[in-house]
Amino acid sequence: MSDLLKLGGLWKTKTGKGLSGQPREDNYTRPAFELMRSGDPFRVLVFKNDRKEQDNHPDYNMFLAPVEDSNTQNWTPPPGDDDIPF
C-alpha cells in the first residue's frame, strides 16, 4: 500500500444517492497530481473512511496507484462487499 497516493476525500450527498468531492492540489496530494500529468497508467481506488470522527471528515478516501503491469486489459476487480453507493 505504500504506492498509494492520496487524491482527496468524498462525502455522501444529503440524499444518500451519490458522492461529492473535489480533489485539491496541495503539498499532501501533489504526488497524485504529478502521476496524473505524467501520462503513466494509474488506477483510482476508493476506500471507506473507517477513521471518520466528525461530519467534516470524508466518508471515503480516494487514492491513485501506479499500474505496475501494463497488461491491464484483462483486469477484473476482486469479489467482495461493495458498499460504495454508486
Describe what this molecule looks like in 3D.
The protein is mainly beta. The protein has a domain at 1-49. It has one helix at residues 30-38, and strands at 5-12, 19-20, 42-48, 60-66. It has a four-stranded antiparallel β-sheet. Strand 1 and strand 2 form a beta hairpin. The model has no long low-confidence stretch (mean pLDDT 81).
Topology:
Blueprint (H helix, E strand, L loop, with lengths): L4 E8 L6 E2 L9 H9 L3 E7 L11 E7 L20
Antiparallel strand pairs: 1-2, 1-4, 3-4
Summarize the entry for a quick read.
The protein is mostly beta strands and 86 residues long.
* Biggest pleated-sheet summary: 4 strands, antiparallel
Give the SSE order as H and E letters. Answer: EEHEE
Count the E strands: 4
CA radius of gyration is 14 Å
List keywords for this structure.
86 residues, mainly beta
